[in-house]
Design goal:
mainly alpha; 2 strands; 20 helices
Amino acid sequence: MELASFPWLTTAILLPIAAGLLIPLIPDPGNGKVVRWYALGITFVTFLITVAAYLNGYDPEVAGLQLYQRVNWLPDLGLGWSVGADGLSMPLILLTSFITTLAVLAAWPVTMKPRLFYFLLLAMDGGQIAVFAVQDMLLFFLAWELELLPVYLLLAIWGGKKRQYAATKFILYTAGSSLFILLVALAMAFAGGGTPSFEYSELAAKHLGTGFQLLCYGGLLIAFGVKLPIVPLHTWLPDAHGEATAPVHMLLAGILLKMGGYALFRFNASMFPEAHGQFAPLLVVLGVVNIIYAALTSFAQRNLKRKIAYSSISHMGFVLIGLGSFSDLGTSGAMLQMISHGLIGASLFFLVGATYDRTHTLQLDEMGGVGQKMRKMFALWTICSLASLALPGMSGFVSELMVFTGFVTSEAYSLSFRIVMAVLAAVGVILTPIYLLSMLREIFFGKENAELVAHSNLVDAEPREIYIISCLLVPIIGIGLYPRLVTDTYRASIEALVAKDTAALKLATAPPLPLRGILPPAFTMAPALG
């Protein structure tokens, strides 16, 4: 079999799930030392498989679907196993397998029910890759749901004091909102009569009326807005992060939020171009609200996990602005922001977990004066915080600059709308370094907590922890210095998507529906593209 025709994506999805089911058969003395090496080996092999898929079957210059494989399951109902990758999904598949491997390594201290814990991590690995790889909307829904149960159990069993509340809130928000995905999938599959099909390509080829598109777009915006998350659908995330362990933090911030952003690219912007033209101004406004509201809320938080969680929500606002920009640069920046935030968010939340293991507190008021005993940890915190506040030379700076420049130079909006949104978004950019640097000062060089310093196990960063952060910093700095390492992998797909949406926008005659009668005429689409 030629390498290009090997079922790379199917193997990457099924291997970790099947390997997880074999965990009960692995001899282990009960402390998880054997199981954790097994899980690390499986996730690393899965990562190598995704890399091999990229190197042997993926061409970045092609905008269409690649690595495609379909097996009919129930053809009368239009059901089948269909996987593939393009520029919208391939970078996120690589990100998923990479972050999951590091999350397993971060879970090294876990000793309670290790078999179940590592099984859930392996199940999430396969399920999350499936979300980005499947090319069938019903399969997408099933993969989306497959990820919910592992996260719920990881929160409910290994979480903090309020773990049951956080886990229940997570499942109610995400499972409830995902019903919209199923309803839209069924509506699109049966629209127009004939044999139903859930294949992405066939759904996108259907000529759907504007009203139907608007209904589907709105329903999916709610479903994916919960996962992104979009304010005010975000309240589950700070609670989940507040109770999660370090590896679960890494998966939540590094991968789960990207599922919402990817789905907005894949379905809302790609399948409903006419509706996207109507909703795009609202996406921009919601993105600005995300940036400002979450930044202000993060500024006020005294709990370390919740502070980083709201910072994460703020940074995801740039994805919404870029997606609604109707420019190649802005949309490419939104894609890069998802990848960048996945790396930076995973690094920060891993450090949060490592710091909590030493101080046994998350309250900034109870920390302070630990910088002299944990100098390496302070250095790691500083570098990752500088990446999060978009220091030049880091990936966050490039992605946010691309979004800002792409939106401000977009001809799809009036000048006044672009100026107002850019100025408001800049407020969040200014707040980010303030709350992150003040956080560092309070943790490491604030008023010394004598009891904490005297009685806590304030050992400095261990080699395993330094290795995990180093693995994350290499792509963060690499992308910051040479963004084309990543942007070239999806440039062709982004250009095709923007061209499709812009063509639909040029044919639109009505003002944007969500803002009609709410904002003054200066805030609607510029007539130049009409």
